[in-house]
Description:
Arc Repressor Mutant, subunit A, DNA-binding, mainly alpha, homodimer, 162 residues
Amino acid sequence: xxxxxxxxxxxxxxxxxxxxxxxxxxxxxxxxxxxxxxxxxxxxxxxxxxxxxxxxxxxxxxxxxxxxxxxxxxxxxxxxxxxxxxxxxxxxxxxxxxxxxxxxxxxxxxxxxxxxxxxxxxxxxxxxxxxxxxxxxxxxxxxxxxxxxxxxxxxxxxxxxx
Amino acid sequence: xxxxxxxxxxxxxxxxxxxxxxxxxxxxxxxxxxxxxxxxxxxxxxxxxxxxxxxxxxxxxxxxxxxxxxxxxxxxxxxxxxxxxxxxxxxxxxxxxxxxxxxxxxxxxxxxxxxxxxxxxxxxxxxxxxxxxxxxxxxxxxxxxxxxxxxxxxxxxxxxxx
DNA sequence: CTATTTATCTTAGCAACTAAATTATATGTC
DNA sequence: GACATATAATTTAGTTGCTAAGATAAATAG
Lengths: 162, 162
């Protein structure tokens, strides 16, 4: 196990993290295919499921799509029986988007292979190791978010005419 | 730190892994935007960069796209100066796709914030911890791949007419 | 040489996006 | 209350990038 130098070890961890990220994408795509919606649709469905019912405009901002795109997306999710529109009692211009109970069931069933595989893997480690792993993951996620924001915000040094 | 029960700890780790996967997607999107190409284009560029020069047909199979889509994709990558087509000396029907040297530089520069953030984080842990982390990640990736294949292969119980 | 296969490109059509215009509702001001 | 402005969602027009199918060129088999 000690065949790695410190640098190699670091590089190997970084590579594994990157691979892990790619596998996450593949899993999302497979889930979406099973549900009969696009990856974008599933991403938005996930946002609604995580944050709770929200208006079309809020979902547009949260997903980075335009409100026009959300209209079509909401149509597709409704047609697939995964979400429904509800009029807002207080502001009749608004449309609340809410996931249907079916989503919880279908989603859990489809996520089961991954969930079970990971849960099985984690049983091999003791509580202290899991706590350490959780700590590292949390810090890595926070650092990743920061890096993404840096990347987005970075002003291009010299824009080459164009 | 021991505020979690075993189940809560497991659930927290699973959630952190899922979040990590989502952040990976965001990072890819931000990278693609910086490079001035779509996420799909970057994914294919990445495939070529990782596996080395390949033909359009090989890239189609590796990416899951049709050869028709690869034609347009190769046009865009060439126009962006990220890849170039080269005639194959042995089989003149083939077109080899190769990343340009510029990609290595630009890619490394754009990946720097993430790379540095992760490298900095890892300096906080000793070699044994990193080796443990690497082991867990490798096993998690293998398990994830298996779960994805299970998900894809699962025959739909009863297809509801449609 | 001719037929078949293989590799890429081209064409037509489609799905999902954006930007801008439209409709409906809410809010502020006189 | 009436009017102007702001806000929320939808509709419309146009773009992009995909697939499927067909065309073209080159390799290979008989």
